[in-house]
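Late entry, evening session. Most of the bench is empty. Finally got around to the prediction I had been postponing all week. Sequence below, unchanged from the version circulated by S.P.
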Amino acid sequence: MRGWTFLALTVAIISGAAKATAQDVPGIEICTAEKTMERRTSCLQSNVNFLQQTVGKLRNEQQARVDAVTRQVDALKVTVASLQKTVEELQAAQKKPAPTKDAPAASRDAPAAKEGGK
């Protein structure tokens, strides 16, 4: 007999706890089931508050994502600018002819330019 009492008490506590927590779960409620205008209005206001909180939370999350992507894009722009500068320097170095041993010898064989112009 004592076992049945304990079992019945346990079932009552569990079912009571489930009902109590179910009321605290926020979300969209079906307000058409309410009969009085005050309860229906309260239900609708609860839905509006829930939706506003949800939209606000999602807005903050999306703004954080946009900010992170913006920072990443800015960092990539700096990297691209650095790489472009490096490419330009390499292209400029490639266009300059490398000094060879023949170039100074040719200048020695050429007649010396006169100073003074006449």
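Two things to note before I forget:
Residues 18-22 have pLDDT under 50 and may be disordered.
Residues 31-93 form one domain.
Will write this up properly tomorrow.
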